[in-house]
Write a structure and sequence with these properties.
Elements: H1 2-13, H2 19-22, H3 27-43, H4 52-57, H5 63-70, H6 89-107, H7 109-122, H8 126-140, H9 142-145, H10 150-163, H11 173-181, H12 184-187, H13 191-204
Helix pairs in contact: 3-13, 5-6, 7-8
Length: about 210
Amino acid sequence: MVSDIVIFRTSFLNVPENYFKCKNIHIFSVRLVFSIFVEIFFAFQPNIFVNFLAHIALSGENPEVIMGNFCGDYIKGKLDSEKNSVWPDHFLRGVRLHRFIDNFTDTDRALREMIREIAVFYGRAAPVAADVCFDHFLAVNFRRFYDADLRHYVSSFYRLADKYSYLIPPDMHPLASALVENDWLFKYREWETVERTLTSMSRRYSF
């Protein structure tokens, strides 16, 4: 599992510098989107809608572990506390996995260096910019890491999320529904979708 993260991290760091130029992506527009989003990012819960594909893909095959990893940001406090005793054991394993992945990306030296470098462009929004890019590049290169087609994999997850929707915390339901309805996990392969999503969120939570 750790090796999967390292391989993916290495792939991301080796993206050619002219990638954005080749994709006709205007750096100024990307910077503007993230500068608008930065205050919303720190005012509300971190990782509110990003990095889901990477978390799900690193969950293995157990459906409750997958759901726990998917919902990890919405499960607060100590996992052995009384309030969290209502969740199934495998679900809590997924939450622990989610926290492990977050800790790994927060403390890995290469990733921290990458975030420092892109902070030149995105400032305090650099962590969320990195998370968005992780899902984008994973979606684009999904076949390099998994023996599955992205469309089939994402559709299977949507069906699983519907079947196990009772494991989704109430305050996450609107987000989970929007994720499926807008097909975010699949559309993150398109950089234009990443920009539109961030812009939409900035408008939704404008002050």
